[in-house]
Write a structure and sequence with these properties.
This protein has nine helices and seven strands; from the N terminus they run E-H-E-H-E-H-E-H-E-H-E-H-H-E-H-H. The protein is an alpha/beta fold and about 260 residues long. A seven-stranded parallel beta sheet has the order 3-2-1-4-5-6-7, with helices on both faces. Strand 1, helix 1 and strand 2 form a beta-alpha-beta unit. It is globular and about 55 Å long. The N and C termini lie far apart (about 50 Å). The model has no long low-confidence stretch (mean pLDDT about 90). Belongs to the short-chain dehydrogenases/reductases (SDR) family.
Amino acid sequence: MGQTAIFITGGGSGIGRAVAVHFAARGWRVGLADISAAGLEATKALLPPGMATTHVMDVRDRDQWRESLDAFAVASGGRLDVMFNNAGIAVGGPFATATDDEIDRIVGINLVGVINGARAAYPLLKATPDSALVNTASAAAIYGSAGLALYAAVKFGVRGLSEALDGEWARDGIKVRVLMPSFIDTPLLDSPVSGTNYSARDSVRAAGLEFTPLDAVAEQVWKAVQGDKLHVIVGKTARRLAFAARWMPGRLRRRMRGGIA
């Protein structure tokens, strides 16, 4: 069927950019999707010539999904080995003070956008042998934290969707993976915490938590596609959280009542 191919949302920065560079370096054709045209061009400039197509799109728009994947399928010869559903935003702060717009945006982009991507990519994934759907969730999908209620809610939704599709799509030969990284130093953390004058990055630093390098996340996405793990937990904070959720739930509950914001 030709050259192996990956389609990446949120490809204009952060994890999406790092994964694009990682896969392109291994000879994969890359479809880059993002709402930022400038971000897409910046990522494309990091890849070998002729390896990538760019698609300006909003993951909430189903028509744009179909148009972008149709265009990518022309470039890839109808092949889609990996759909990387990665686009997302961050919203932090007390749940009670969240605005209607903040709620609608984070649900629309982080959850509905992932659902849209999975639905739109399904025919191409099914037609490509040994394909994979990789959805970006978060360590927030391991246990919810005070100050991150909305973010945890949508990321738990992404985790639940991934677990369900892992069961449904196995018969179609489609692997499903859910990425759950700890905090990554990306533009996502520039988002202000609702009702405050500080950013999510400031909150992470104040809590004494580490940032996981982007290269480490990209390497784990590569290994996830090659391997057989459904849950891809990346970074020290995420691993500690998963351990505590399983073995020390009471202690974790008391700690989370303080939150990070």
